[in-house]
Amino acid sequence: MPTTTTTTTTTSARSSPTALDRGDGRSGPVIAVRGLEKRYGSTLVLRGISFAVEEGELFGLLGTNGAGKTTTVEILQGLRRADRGSVEVLGLDPAVHGERLRRRIGSQLQDAALPERLRVGEALKLFAALHPTPLPLDELAGEWQLEALWRRPFGALSGGERQRLFVALALVGRPRLVFLDELTQNLDPVGRRRTWDVVRRIRDGGTTVVLVTHDVEEAERLCDRIVVLDRGQVVAEGTPASIVGELDGRAVVSFTDGDLDVRGLRGVPGVDRVDRHGAQVRVTGSGPVLAHVGAHLVAMGRAPLDLRVQLPTLEDRFVVLTRRPLGPKESS
Amino acid sequence: MTAVAVDPGVAVAPEGIGSVRTTARLAGYELRLLAREPMVAVSLIGFPLATVLVLAGVFGQGPDPDFGGVAPDDHYLAGYIGVVLASMGLVTIPMHLATHRELGVLRRFRAAGLSGGVVVASEIVVGLVLGTVSVTVVLAAGSAVYGLAAPDDVVAVLGWYLVGLFCFIAIGVALGSLIPTGRAASAFGNFVFVPMFLLGGGGPPRAVMTSTMVTLSDALPLSHVIGGLRQSWLGSTDDPHSLWWPLLVATLAVLSAVRTARRRAG
User: What is the CATH number of the domain that holds A294?
Assistant: First the structure.
């Protein structure tokens, strides 16, 4: 049985609506999360997570469904209250200054739509009116290719058009920080890649982006830094490359040569293992093993046409990090 | 990692922007959206107008003891102000709010910095405008067909109208806060509205109701709103018209809506 948790959110001493300046001439992170806990009924969905996001980063919150990603970003925006821990976003405590904070950030929420009959132009005008110095709407509509859709009702927009509108709505108030939650959900591959370009453009414009996703490829391609959440805990944090690097970084080099005597490959630097399956040869090793194997094959006069290397990916690491033991039914 | 100072003063909306102007703007958009929904016109104008024209025509235009001594057409026309308000509070507003929540519109509004208070205030404005326009149309059309005497006490009519508005907007917001989907809100709203309409002054007069029906009728806030409107407009009615009952129901509805909003915010 879970223990009872006292439901108090720590309001940090720096939660007053003032600058992020720490007093030493350096500014703090745009987001600082420490020991965050959240319980729904008897289920503890966040188990003391901590992380920080720096200004200008494209930061990824990666995890499987139910890992606690959306709950985390809802707490960061003051849309939910944490049970324990402290949160600071743009120098404000979202639990105390939620409304004020939400006027300064942009937000694309998962599964949050607009009224079916609300027109694109009306939505832009309505959301622009919430900010004192919104972006000029004609510029914004031009930037996100919404001019031709100006009078179209939201219900008649395609998935990609809706995402462009959501991004435009998130940016209309010139935010310093934008949350994008499962932005490419339900998009086809072409729409997904276009949306990735959109996200890069937002970051390149100087806005800090928090990208919430369960799509490992998306996180690996886009994010400067990632936190991997699993069952409410941070299980990895760093750049995509550094997280992959924590995996046993062995590469697999493969090629086809039915006549090659593979014994010679075992002495090649970096090679740990050589396997042959018919004409297919697989060489497992570490370091610059591809270069050494290639050089060896060329020296032997047997340069293959299909020499390939498979390196560990973030997905491999993600699978290891989020692997669950099989239940009785699955293992039987 | 390089950290750049953030000026929290940048892009912060001025104080008060989240109040009157934003409420008016949101209410304007909500009214436009409702005007694009054919069902709104049907339930707020079409249904009450068709019903009142039929009933007023069936029961005649001479004073009738079954109608508290007033002419049935006047009895129905004055009372249908309440029917319009009940339809708005039990069907239109809950359906509108619940559909907004179901689609995530309310979450999106909140994430954009629109407070729950602004959304509720805009619903009140929407109810005020929608109710007034619908009542005006129904009364104007009904009067054009059957004629309607001038109000006996204009101030009292306005007072009861405001009480009815407050009561049914509060009920609408409370139901819209509780019910999870637009379809559920529509089903529940109609399920409650039809018997309330029939027993609460929109259907047969009290003189022909059974004692059970009269007891049920006395418990309905609509009976008292309609009774109050009839009393103040016609100077006479046998309908109940206790002011405290619709106000109590409205207060309970407001408390329920606030409780639900707090629970959802957790």
Answer: 3.30.70.980
Asked if B266 lies within 8 A of A80 by C-beta distance, the reply is yes
Provide the chain B residues 72-131 that lie in CB contact (below 8 A) with chain A: 99-100, 103-105, 107-108, 110-115
Which residue reads 């708005």 in tokens?
B88
Task: Tell whether the model's pLDDT for residue B230 goes beyond 60.
Answer: yes
Hey, where are the domains in chain B? 20-265
The string of pLDDT tens digits covering residues A133-150 is: 899 999 999 988 899 999
State if pTM tops 0.80: no
Q: Hey, what are A79's tokens?
A: 């849309």
Q: How far apart are CA A280 and CA A272, in angstroms?
A: 17
**In the block, residue with structure tokens 């129901």:** B249
Domain of residue A37, residue span: 31-245
Whether ipTM > 0.85 holds is no
CB contact under 8 A, B25 and A129: yes
Pair A237, A258 in one domain: no
Q: How crowded is residue B211: how many other Cβ atoms within 10 Å of its Cβ? A: 7
Residue B4: list chain A partners with CB under 8 A: 27, 55-56
Same domain for A187 and A307, yes or no, is: no
Residues A280 and A163 in one domain: no
The reply to whether B12 touches chain A by the CB within 8 Å rule is yes
Which DSSP category does B124 fall into?
H
Total domains, chain A: 2
User: Which pLDDT value is given to residue B84?
Assistant: 94
